[in-house]
Amino acid sequence: MPYTVSEKIILSHLLEGELKRGSPILLRIDQTLTQDLTGILVAQFLDAVGPERLGVKQMCIYADHKTVETDAESADDHRFLKTTAEHYGAIFSKNGNGICHFLQCQRFAAPGKTLLGSDSHTPTSGALGMLAIGSGGLTVAKSCLGMGFRMTMPKILNVRLKGALRPGVSSKDAALELLRRLSVKGGRGYILEFTGEGVRSLSVSQRQTLCNMSIETGAYTGLFPSDENTRLFLRAQQREEDYIPISADDGAIYDDELTLDLSLLEPLVAKPSMPDNVAPVRETDVRPNSVFIGSCTNGSYQDIARAAQILQGRKVHPDIDLTVGPGSRQVLRQLLDTGVLSVLLDAGARILECSCGPCIGIGQVPPHRGVTVRTSNRNFPGRSGTKDASVYLVSPETAAATAVMGRLTDPRELLPEPYMPVEEPASAPVEDSALLRPANPRGRRDKPILRGPGISELPVRGPLRDRIEGVIGIKTGDGVTTDDIIPSTPETNQVNANIPRLAESTFLYLDPDYPARARAAGCSAIVGGENYGQGSSRESAALLPMFLGVELVLARSYARIHRENLINYGILPLTFARPEDYAALQQGERFVLRDVLQGLERGQLLLELPDKAEAIPVLLDANAYEKRVLRLGGALNDLKQNMQGGKKET
Q1: Dihedral pair phi/psi, residue 134, rounded to 5°
Q2: How many other β-carbons are positioned within 10 Å of the β-carbon of residue 121?
Q3: What are phi and psi of 25, to 5 degrees?
Q4: Rounded CA gap, 488 and 502, in Å?
Q5: Sign for the pseudo-dihedral over CA of 484, 117, 128, 221
Q6: Which residue from 52, 360, 556, 591 has the least number of CB within 10 angstroms?
Q7: What's the Cα-to-Cα distance from 15 to each of 18, 102, 136, 575, rounded to whole Å?
């Protein structure tokens, strides 16, 4: 039978299950990726289990978020990860080498392979025809041990591309148009597979942007075929031997289809405070304080060189602070070798280290009630490090035009004449000295793992109780993000490895009194709306509530990764049997959940409300594996039990 690209890769890596939409499957994972925010928990998980060796072909650990090391805690975290890599035989990327997704694409991603990363933007590697999925740290750690990746067989959305982008319009505008059409939850349960004659017009760098932002629709990943453009990219990286062609078979069947004509697009902007709040740039009047060009979404040579075309011979507006962050040292070297870096400096731009910083509030934090225009991928409240700042997401060309004019500007107004398109470089300055490859792929057990004083022990919950009684600790609305649950601020990023200290910032922006109230309750629940937990793969958004005594979340619906993280930490992810019951629940109400173990098996429970002398039906949609993890109190307990029993697979 004819297969899609997604089905071909899944079928070649299938350990359990079948290609039946909605059924549980287990995939073999070729590569894993983690970084210095989410990677601490991955390393703690491995440390707690103490395996003899890794069970994945390649594990990469990147220091790319907290690279400036403005505090000893950040330096401790990097030392902990570096010594973990030495101990277990993983690759470690040093500070300043670049953003994990850029480096993974440049040096390791390969067509037809699978990648699981503890960063939600891991789908970036889908640009090379690789099935690349973001997940929680505990799930990634299990894949590092050779236990594969459990998921629900997704539906596949055929994103059929037509035409080609016009001058001044970029693949970022295509990504924003997809978000405008699909919304931040319209891709849930899907892989976005890009097909059509328009695919040939996009370089790998342009494809990276579309795959990177596929997660913002709620999808598992974005995926391109592997074609001649893929081969040329790998040749430039001196890795042409990794190339294999992959395309969908004629007659391959997709679950849904969306057609996007690239030639009809115009410059777009995502207005505060959701990536799907999209409008034409020409209709949006904004005067920002700062502009940032870079991030894992738009930090490629092509991205920055196109922005430089706008800046050539011009100066940054006096009211604008323009910063540029290349995606990797390789990109920085290309900018230097081609003279683009001089153009940026002459225009008045500041050049940042190759890192994630501004995207998550580590540096370039806006002032109170500030307005900033950025080429990154998320504009949630507080994401920039300032709770009341307004973040607008745009393409590199639009960002450059805005920096020159001092107001949000359609870049087509400032295009050079004659316009010369920026092509993907035919060769790359490959230099891997900052990638520390293990001398022994089996690791060095004589190399101790060095844990700093601020790195706390990984908390573990006991087995699921048959009776759960507590109070509703907080009730949230729709679209609550992981940044709402645990804000990304300079303070929280400093102590992200210290669970007791970090827990004090849980729901900091929504309800600063929440941690004290949760501790006082002992046992509590969270009530959420639609798409609860969207955004980052940051599993601290599940770990911290568990640490504070949360045993269940009751929401209208969940983002995929967050639901997975809740289960990994032994928290019941319940949904409403009757949507109208959401309105009836109030913060501070007492609840009782009886016969939990039976209800877990049935998938139906009753949430009693003693103060109202009533009960509401709730649902738990979980497969057999998820039920087992919940019964045991989380993924760490499950793994320890399996390893004690001598099992390799879960």
Answers
A1: -90, 150
A2: 29
A3: -135, 160
A4: 11
A5: negative
A6: 52
A7: 9, 29, 20, 30
| pTM for the whole structure | 0.95
**According to the model, what pLDDT value does residue 285 have?**
95
Q: Among 435, 436, 455, which Cα is nearest to 444's? A: 436
Which residues have a Cβ under 8 Å from the Cβ of 645 and sit 6 or more positions away?
none
pLDDT tens for 606-636 read: 999 999 999 999 999 999 999 999 999 999 8
Amino acid identity, residue 6? S
Q: In angstroms, how far is CA 246 from the centroid of its own chain?
A: 25
Q: In angstroms, what CA-CA distances link 130 with 123, 124, 370, 373, 549? A: 9, 9, 39, 31, 39
Which DSSP string do the residues of 575-617 spell out, in sequence order?
A: EESSTTHHHH--TT-EEEE-SHHHHHHHTEEEEEETTTTEEEE
Rounded CA separation 538/483 (Å) = 9
Which residue's structure tokens are 């949760």?
518
Judge whether 238 and 298 are in contact, CB under 8 Å: no
* Bridge pairing between strands 572-576 and 350-351: unpaired
Question: What does R_g of the chain's alpha carbons equal in angstroms?
Answer: 24
At residue 649, the pLDDT reads 47
CB 165 within 8 A of CB 193: no
Give me the phi and psi of 305, to 5 degrees please. -65, -35
The percent of the chain in helix, strand and coil, each rounded to the nearest 5, is: 35, 20, 45
Residue 645 is predicted with a pLDDT of 59
Residue numbers of the chain with a pLDDT score lower than 50:
647-650
Q: What angle do CA 41, 356, 120 make, to 5 degrees?
A: 55
201 SS3 class = helix
CA distances to 199, 201, 285, 294, 329 from 205, in Å: 12, 12, 29, 13, 16
Q: How far apart are CA 170 and CA 556, in angstroms?
A: 36
Cα–Cα distance, 551 to 572 (Å, whole number): 6
Q: 373, 312, 296, 317: which is closest to 344 by C-alpha?
A: 312
Give the 3-state secondary structure of residue 40: helix
> Are 327 and 99 in contact, with CB atoms under 8 Å apart?
yes
| Cβ atoms within 10 Å, residue 50 | 9
**H/E segment holding residue 176:** helix 171-182
The answer to whether 324 touches 293, Cβ cutoff 8 Å, is yes
Q: Taking Cα atoms as reference points, which of 313, 320, 306 lies closest to residue 343?
A: 313
Beta strands at 371-374 and 290-294: parallel, antiparallel or unpaired: parallel
C-alpha–C-alpha distance, residues 450 and 436, integer Å: 17
